[in-house]
Amino acid sequence: MEQPTFGEVNQLGGVFVNGRPLPNAIRLRIVELAQLGVRPCDISRQLRVSHGCVSKILARYNETGSILPGAIGGSKPRVTTPNVVKHIKAYKDRDPGIFAWEIRDKLLSDGVCDKYNVPSVSSISRILRNKIGGNSSPTHQQQYENKNPSAAAAAAAAAAAAASPPIYNQFYPYSCPPPSVPTMAAPQMPPQSHGITHLGTKQPVSNCVTPCYMRAWAASSHSMNDILGFRQPTQPMGEHTPMTHENISTNMIGQNYNMQYYNVNMKPPVPAMYLQN
DNA sequence: ATCGTGACGGTTGAT
DNA sequence: TTATCAACCGTCACG
């Protein structure tokens, strides 16, 4: 997509790109403010993000400990893995008259699959029709047997980073403050290679929410999740290491977020009829 | 006034 | 290369 995306303006005057996640800086800010005791409705007004979105992001954070959006796009993992195909083939070899539904039952009873990933009868029929008799190619095999998801994720991330232009660069032109501007206390963003994204964890820190971080954002959210992963939902929000004021950024994120209208020659935010207290 | 939720229109990426 | 599909997104409106 070469065409710059200008996004849309919501009822609060905030800018968003339909279909795309909010920048991580905003997501982070939402969680930061919530941890400081700011009410969701106030966060919504302050950051000009719909309360539904604030609610969703906080709920997700409480549940997973991650501020990152989920994986967008892609397909569900396939159930007809080489191992399953192998078993189907074995059943068929053993009993050529076996029915697909019997194979399905055997896959379950033999523990090859569970109820969540057992292929449908039609899938089994298709496998019997198309695959039995031919072997899976090595690449196909590799596709399912890569036991090193982090390495795969890193590769995917590298590829994604190399291939995609920053999604929000034109639209959310975050950048490190110029030398004349005091560096804000940076919200700590996870390094690309780190698997932990929840707040309050000691992490290597870049001192700005920026180029580096936004470069990470350039990767698809799917890749981002591959790279960063979601924290296991073990800690409820209250158990996260409390954030200190040193960790809390100033209002700059919000300001930047809104300032970018002017960077792209958009109209200023609509009258703040929803901003009144 | 606040907040949870579902519909909606949109994007994305694997197949 | 293109189309399809199913995941996700944030906004909006409703209760």
What does this entry look like structurally?
The protein is an all-alpha fold. It is built from eleven helices and two strands; from the N terminus they run E-E-H-H-H-H-H-H-H-H-H-H-H. It has helices spanning 24-35, 40-47, 51-64, 82-94, 100-109, 121-130, 138-145, 149-163, 211-218, 221-228, 252-263; strands spanning 8-9, 15-16. Strands 1-2 form a two-stranded antiparallel sheet. It binds a DNA duplex (15 and 15 nucleotides) through helix 3.
Using brief descriptors, characterize the structure shown.
277 residues; DNA-binding; mainly alpha; two-stranded antiparallel sheet; 1% strand; 11 helices
Give me the count of strands.
Answer: 2
Q: Main sheet?
A: 2 strands, antiparallel
Q: What share of residues are in beta strands?
A: under 5%
State the helical fraction: 40-55%
Strand order of the largest sheet: 1-2
Class based on secondary structure composition and strand pairing: mainly alpha
Number of helices: 11
Low-confidence stretches: 134-277
- Order of helices and strands, N to C? EEHHHHHHHHHHH
Terminal CA distance: 40 Å
Overall shape: it is elongated
Mean pLDDT: 59
Radius of gyration: 24 Å
Give a quick summary of the entry.
This protein is mainly alpha-helical and 277 residues long.
Strands, helices and their partners?
Elements (H helix, E strand, L loop, with lengths): L7 E2 L5 E2 L7 H12 L4 H8 L3 H14 L17 H13 L5 H10 L11 H10 L7 H8 L3 H15 L47 H8 L2 H8 L23 H12 L14
Antiparallel strand pairs: 1-2
The chain binds a DNA duplex (15 and 15 nucleotides) through α3.
